Structures are given as structure tokens and as C-alpha cells.
Amino acid sequence: MTVTSEILSASGAIQRVLVVDDSRLQRHILISSLRKWGVEVIEAESGEEAMDICRQSLPDLVLSDWMMPGMSGLEFCRAFRALPTDGYGYFILLTSKSDKNDIAKGLDAGADDFLTKPVNSHELRARISAGARILSMQRQLSEKNRVISETLDKLRKAHDAIDKDLIQARKIQQSLVPELTREFGASRVSLLLKPCGHIGGDLVGMFSPGGSRIGFYCIDVSGHGITSAMMTAKLGGYLSSTYFDQNMALEKRHESFYALRPPAEVARLLNDRVTADAGVEEYFTMVYGTADLRNGHVDMVQAGHPHPLILRRDGSAEFLGAGGVPIGLLPDLTYAQFDTVMEPGDRLLFYSDGFTECRLANGGMLDSDGLLRLVRACDAGQTGQEFLDDLFWQLRQIMAPGQGMEDDVSATLFEYWGP
């Protein structure tokens, strides 16, 4: 076996060769050499006949004379390249021309290589070996592109399926917050929940066992995406506004009566529950408060969450709390409780760090002072849900241009208007 036949048989790139020449002798010389190298040879005596062959089955390589009656080799090359096909055929022009302009014309027509007549057997072998290498690389590339295309198609279908699931998951997560505003006597609790993606890791909520006591909270689970959203689903059950027997913030008394547990005890119970769950690595920050609507007394616990902001009726404002450790980081923790007394017309705002850590146009973050400026930029006459929506709109206006939300944004607003 010759070197050329070894190359051709190993690569499998060239199996069928089309020889086109109006000279029978020239075709015989070329065909004799080619068959020694183990390839199938087809012959045609004109460009027209060669095109008929190519339309039926594209050869791997074409050896075509330039000067032929009727369709010239140059015209045949252009027609060959115009054929609709997914494969590629290597085209060598046989010519006695050596002028650079003629060679440029051949390359423009689509020729890959040239052989000068009379053809030398050794040079023919070398040119065909070079063509085999190029065809082999081209087919390997085509195969890789096919695999990539199929993989991308599979990924696209998988992405569409995941996207569909996430849209449904968002609806389920939204069901954890069945109402965004609720009035309790003259007072009101309003909620804001804006995930940065389909689903998020923030949770807000409120509940009341009846009478004059209410509970409300703002939670931010570590991380983003599906795992955080699953954690919020679990927490939504632990602090359910519908099923009081599952709500860890409520204590059943006298068979049918539920009372609010102190906020510090609720944080401890949640920490014990989360740290006891094997395999759960997520933790969360939280501000949880209970309000007595008879006198405006509010008890709170802060577990790693941003400081609550109380907005007094007289226009003054104050950040409350001393920080605290996030829930789920360490077992057997206790939490400190603090309180404030609200007068009619005062408002208490719980908010996530999606506000204070928002990236601004100047590269900095909003921080607490920026949040206070944002609050004061809102329409003074707005209350409840309108106030929260305006606050979020104000935030979007100062975000870095072209940058979407990097974190979930959530808030809980308690407005006290007396007994």
C-alpha cells in the first residue's frame, strides 16, 4: 500500500474522484494513477456531462481540465460550487496556465488547487493527499458543528421546559403572599415582593389570630434561584396566614384560641427547626414584629436583616434594632427583642437588602441614608401599597443604567392609625 492510499484509507475523506477532460488519453493517465491508490473513479468528457453526474451524487474530489469545448473548466467549477449540498467537494483545476491572473480567476471561481499539465504522478499524489487532509478536517468540523447544533437544540428544549416550570413556580410562590394589603381595624399592613428572576428568595407576610394583635415579617433567604425559593416555600408554611396550627409564631390556647408568641421566641424556634433539618445549608435573615393595635406597642426581633425604619407622623425617622445573627447559621441561639411605641399616623418599614445594596449609577450602593432619601422622595400623600410601589419605582430610577435587579427586593409596611 502506498503512502497516498494509506492516507486516503485512514481518513476516508476521498473515496470517489471525478475526472473531467475532453482528452481520452489524459483521462486514462489520471484514472490509472488514481485506481492504484484505491479510490473509485468516475469520468466525464465535458463540463455538461460532469454536472449531470454531480447533481446525482457529489464526488469527494474533482480533477477538471480548464480548457474544454462547451462548458470550460472554470464555468464547470462555478456551477459545481453553486450546487445545493451539505457536503464539500475538493476541486483541482488542470491547466497549462501559469499566469497569476489566471490562477486568481480559478480561485475566484471556487477552485481549491491547481495542477500544471502534463500532470506529474508524484505531484498528483501530493495534491490529492493535501485535499484529503483538508476534507477530513472539514468533515470533522462539520460533525462537531452537527453535534453542537444538536446539543444546543437539546439545551434549548431543556431551557424552555425549565423556563415553563419556573413560570409555574413563580405562580406557586406568589400564592404564598395571597394578599398584598390588609386592613386591621383602622391600621393596615402592605407588602412588596419583587424577585430579580422568575422566582426569588424573599418572603413577606402578615397574619392575625384575631382581636387586636397582628404579626408581620420580612425574610431574605441566602442565595438566589430554585433552592432559595424552595426555602421560602417551607418558611411560608412555618408562618402561614391561613393554617394557624402550622404557624410557629402562634400558640394554641383553650382549644380554639391562638395567641402570638413573642418575636424573640419565634426566631429561636425557627432557628432550632432549620438547623435540625439535615442537608439544609440555606440560612435567612428576618425582621418579625407583633403589634398591639390598642396602644401602638410593637415588639420586634432582628436576625441579620436590615434595620427597621420607623417614620413618625411629624416627619422624623429612626432606624431601630441592633442586628442579630441570621437564622439557620448556628444551633442553639437566642435572640434579643426590642420594642417601640407608635402613635397614630406613624409608619414602620421592614425592607430587604435589595434596597440598601442596590448598585447605583456611580458604582456605589444605596445604603441606609440613601434609603431614607428615597423614602422622603416619595409623594407625602401616598400610603399603603401606593407608597411601596412608588418606593420601588424610585429605586429603579437610580439603578446603574442598563443593569437589571441583582437581588430580590421586598418590603413590609405597617401603618398605625390608633385603636
Automatic annotation (TrEMBL):
GO terms of molecular function: phosphatase activity
Gene Ontology BP annotations: phosphorelay signal transduction system
InterPro entries attached to this UniProt entry: Bact_Sigma-Reg (IPR052016), CheY-like_superfamily (IPR011006), PPM-type-like_dom_sf (IPR036457), PPM-type_phosphatase-like_dom (IPR001932), Sig_transdc_resp-reg_receiver (IPR001789)
Organism: Antarcticimicrobium luteum
Gene3D superfamilies: 3.40.50.2300, PPM-type phosphatase domain
Pfam family, one: Response_reg
Positions of transmembrane segments: none
Keywords: Hydrolase, Phosphoprotein
Residue ranges constituting the Response regulatory domain according to the UniProt record: 16-132
Modified residues (4-aspartylphosphate): 65
The name this protein goes by in its record: Fused response regulator/phosphatase
Domain of life per record: Bacteria
Lineage: Bacteria, Pseudomonadati, Pseudomonadota, Alphaproteobacteria, Rhodobacterales
